[in-house]
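FAQ: What does a ligand-bound record look like?

Like this one, built around S-adenosylmethionine:
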Amino acid sequence: MSSFSVRPSEREPVSTRFVRAISRGRLGGGAGERRFEAPEIYGRSAIARIARALPLVERAYANVRFSILRPKLLSVMDLLLPDEGPILDIGCGFGLFAAYFGQTQPGRRIVGVDPDARRIEMARKVCAKIGLEGHTFVAGDARDVALEGTFAGAYVLDVMHHIPAADQRPLLERLRDLLAPRGVLVVKDITTEPALGLEFTRLLDRVMVGWDEPLAYRHHREWGEMLTSLGFHVRMVRVPDVLPYPHVVIAATKAD
Ligand SMILES: C[S@@+](CC[C@H](N)C(=O)[O-])C[C@H]1O[C@@H](n2cnc3c(N)ncnc32)[C@H](O)[C@@H]1O
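The answer part, i.e. the structure of the complex:
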């Protein structure tokens, strides 16, 4: 896996890079044609392509996951992640979101990690079926799997509460050390209030993982304090849902 460092031009405000991209015609179709694809519509077709690439049972799961992480929530995370370079997907499962974020920004090279070898194999197949190249999937535990190089970004979608409480901080510390300076870590998780929302989520998680696995949720303030104490600059937003999931999206930027 390759190293990555943020070039000085990438420190420019997004608005400056955006204007330059338009003037180069990078957001458009062909030369001289300046078209702008509406991200939500693009997101929907990316999701449909992923669902079609999956066998029936996994397709049903994907439809549930994409109805929980709706296109608007995905778009928030899409905009927080770097648009190119190596990006870690911790607890990638079947690779649903690697296939999504890999489609929305083709310059990304996603490295997915999950302890479940069957899911990793499925993630490889999904990317191959969609025709996505340059992404790799590694079977292993994010706490100690061998990962080389540095990463422009990382995301952890509904995985932190599956990590035992005592291992959560060391894992975030590891991710910080794997990020390039100014790299961004996006954590999507479930906060602990309101209590009804937490219990609703816990029940569904128990249906998925059974009674033996640890479920270690934290209040979003605790995640914020932990990430800040690890040297990240932290921003977060609670995202409402029609179902009572207490979603929180956290963007943690590593210092220079
Ligand atoms: C709720 S699923 C989320 C999967 C995917 N991120 C998504 O949003 O659809 C939790 C995933 O975390 C993975 N996981 C659990 N413990 C892990 C660990 N120590 N390291 C990496 N992944 C882990 C599980 O195998 C599972 O695929």
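Follow-up question: can I read anything off the structure? Yes, for example: The chain is about 45% helix and 20% strand.
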